[in-house]
Amino acid sequence: MIHTVKTLREIKWLIRWAGNKLLLVEFFATWSPPCKQIYPTFAAMSEKMTDVMFAKVDVDENQETYEVYGIECFPTFIFFKNGKEVERLEGVDASGLRRLTIQYRNN
């Protein structure tokens, strides 16, 4: 399941709620070809990795959130654990996305 984040307040709540579980958030733009390219990988991971929380933020609908997190590239994936950002991955890198997700969910 992928949570759709609509507000800054909502993402902050989700980060707290995840606790010691890994939360992977994709910041995307619907008009971005790289975002469209990586999304099937992100969606498949969300179905297989049920011990990880997945969320997405449409930057065109949520400018405040992407500005607060300093997003400069689409897509950008931010990994949160224990209420803190632990990693950031920018661009289309399916193998890197899988590798980092496995690494942080096991730590």
Report a brief summary of the structure.
The protein has 107 residues and is of the alpha/beta class.
Per-chain topology:
Elements: E1 2-5, H1 8-18, E2 23-28, H2 33-48, E3 53-58, H3 63-68, E4 76-81, E5 84-90, H4 94-105
Parallel strand pairs: 1-3, 2-3
Antiparallel strand pairs: 2-4, 4-5
Domain Thioredoxin: 1-106
InterPro entries: Thioredoxin-like_sf, Thioredoxin_domain
Protein name: Thioredoxin
Write out key terms for the chains shown.
Thioredoxin; Glutaredoxin; 107 residues; alpha/beta; 4 helices; five-stranded mixed β-sheet; globular; disulfide bond
Q: Can you characterise this structure?
A:
The structure is a single chain. With 107 residues, the chain is α/β, with parallel strands linked by helices. The protein is 42% helix and 27% strand. It has helices spanning 8-18, 33-48, 63-68, 94-105; strands at residues 2-5, 23-28, 53-58, 76-81, 84-90. Strand 4 (76-81) and strand 5 (84-90) form a beta hairpin. This is Thioredoxin.
Number of helices: 4
CATH architecture field: 3-Layer(aba) Sandwich
Helix content: 40-55%
Radius of gyration: 12 Å
How far apart, in Å, are the first and last alpha carbons?
22 Å
Overall tally of structural domains: 1
Please trace the helix and strand order, writing H or E for each element: EHEHEHEEH
* CATH hierarchy, class: Alpha Beta
Domain Thioredoxin: 1-106
Keywords: Disulfide bond
InterPro entries: Thioredoxin-like_sf, Thioredoxin_domain
Protein name: Thioredoxin
